[in-house]
Write a structure and sequence with these properties.
InterPro entries: Galactose-bd-like_sf, NADH-UbQ_OxRdtase-assoc_prot30, NDUFAF1. The chain is mainly β. The chain contains no helices and 12 strands. Strands 1, 2, 3, 5, 8 and 12 form a 6-stranded antiparallel β-sheet that branches. A hairpin with a 2-residue loop joins strand 9 and strand 10.
Length: 157
């Protein structure tokens, strides 16, 4: 098992609660009429996750919505115009629960839109790990308003 720690980054306010030491991500999404908009955080680094098959998050959501996604990038291709590898999940409402995201189910996206490509995520060279609360521009479900995601831990297994 490898634990992955997230730091405070760009578009989202993150704080640690004491004595529980959990990360809490707060967002107030005010997307465009078509659903374009997000709030997110990411951690840059080098993660060799070969030998692992999935990410696990022990989390809960509170607020007006509970749709989130994990965003991974590899090989140092951490910014545009490069695509990311993403997987959506629903945070459990109010109670902590485990969410499992197999690496094989991460798909390529560019600015929230699914990309057709033959390349798969290279888990031996992950260089960015992030979490986003999405507005839903290319999704059937649109999200807006205040929400939180409380994370007890994230780990590779």
């Amino acid at each position: 098992m490898q634990l992955i720690y997230l730091r405070q980054m760009e578009n989202i306010y993150s704080t640690l609660q004491k004595p529980m030491i959990r990360a809490i991500f707060f967002a107030l999404l005010n997307p465009q009429p078509n659903g374009a908009g997000f709030a997110g955080t990411r951690s840059l680094g080098f993660y060799d996750l070969s030998g692992y098959t999935k990410l696990q998050l022990y989390c809960r959501g509170q607020g007006h919505f509970n749709g989130f996604k994990v965003v991974l990038r590899h090989k140092g291709l951490n910014d545009e115009p490069n695509y990311s590898f993403e997987q959506y999940f629903q945070a459990p409402k109010d109670e902590f629960a485990l969410r499992t995201l197999p690496f094989s189910e991460f798909k390529a996206y560019y600015r929230g839109k699914r990309v057709n490509n033959n390349e798969t995520l290279d888990i031996s060279q992950v260089t960015s790990i992030g979490i986003q609360m999405y507005g839903g521009v290319y999704q059937t479900i649109k999200q807006k308003g205040p929400a939180t995601l409380e994370l007890d831990w994230i780990r590779a297994e």
